[in-house]
TrEMBL record:
Keywords for this protein: DNA-binding, Phosphoprotein
Organism in which the protein naturally occurs: Faecalitalea cylindroides
The keyword S-adenosyl-L-methionine is annotated on this UniProt entry: no
Gene3D superfamilies: 3.40.50.2300, LytTr DNA-binding domain (2.40.50.1020)
Residue ranges annotated for the HTH LytTR-type domain, each copy included: 132-227
Protein name: LytTR family DNA-binding domain-containing protein
Membrane spanning residue stretches: none
One example GO MF annotation: phosphorelay response regulator activity
Pfam families per record: LytTR, Response_reg
InterPro entries for this protein: CheY-like_superfamily (IPR011006), LytR-like (IPR046947), LytTR_DNA-bd_dom (IPR007492), Sig_transdc_resp-reg_receiver (IPR001789)
Length: 233
């Protein structure tokens, strides 16, 4: 994860650097944090960064104008606007900023506001690689569920495709134990991000597909599902 910081006030810049480093280090995210020294550097290099923290007031420059230019070049960049004034809040929405942080930015404020943003990014970009099943890296969030039958497990993707693997289900359950997957049935692991609702003995996925949930796994599964919802809020 690459993070870029553009702040012309040295004091505010050091505070924000500390907040970013504290949070990402504590949560053991792998990241690179760089500082931007000019709007030219920002516009030239922003396309290679995943996150941009930018003050809305940059001397004679306007952070919103820069943000709009960046958004046109790099629509997937997560932009976080910082400012001393609430009056610029509406302007922050023009660049579709992920967050608007009002200075002074305490660690508590930073953590509570940014935790869902970083979690969502992590969920969207976590990948696995196993040459036994694919030549390419597989994004975990592309997997809707994992089904085990005939002594093989099958990764079922959001595009409807299936990928056969030689591993038992408990292999995937252990491998993905810290991710957003949970067992709902003796032979099925479900990506919690794809659940719409649970009706009786069926999990209704966002694509309207139904997956069974057994009485044995139901309580633990529902607890993990609710925990996942709360984490994303």
């Amino acid at each position: 994860m690459k993070v870029l910081l553009y702040e012309d006030d040295k004091h505010d810049r050091e505070i924000l650097k500390t907040r970013i480093n504290n949070f990402l280090s504590e949560h053991k995210y792998k990241y690179e944090l760089d500082e931007c020294v000019s709007s030219k550097m920002l516009l030239d290099q922003a396309c290679v960064y995943d996150f941009l923290f930018m003050d809305i007031e940059l001397g004679s420059e306007n952070g919103i104008d820069l943000g709009l230019k960046i958004r046109k070049k790099h629509k997937n960049c997560h932009i976080i606007i910082t400012s001393n004034y609430t009056k610029y809040l509406i302007d922050g929405y023009k660049v579709k900023a992920d967050r608007y942080l009002l200075k002074p930015i305490s660690q508590e404020l930073f953590d509570s506001e940014m935790a869902p943003v970083f979690r969502e990014y992590y969920a969207e970009n976590t990948t696995i690689y196993d040459e036994k099943i694919s030549r390419y890296r597989i994004r975990l969030n592309d997997i809707v569920y994992i089904d085990f039958f005939d002594k093989n497990s099958y990764l079922v993707f959001d595009n409807g495709k299936k990928l056969k693997t030689p591993y038992p289900l408990y292999y995937w359950e252990e491998k993905l134990s810290k991710e957003y997957f949970a067992r709902c049935y003796k032979s099925i692991l479900v990506n919690l991000n794809y659940i719409d609702t649970i009706v009786k003995n069926d999990i209704i996925l966002v694509n309207k597909q139904k997956v069974p949930v057994s009485r044995f796994y139901r309580k633990q599964f529902e607890e993990k599902w609710l925990e996942n919802i709360q984490r994303m809020l």
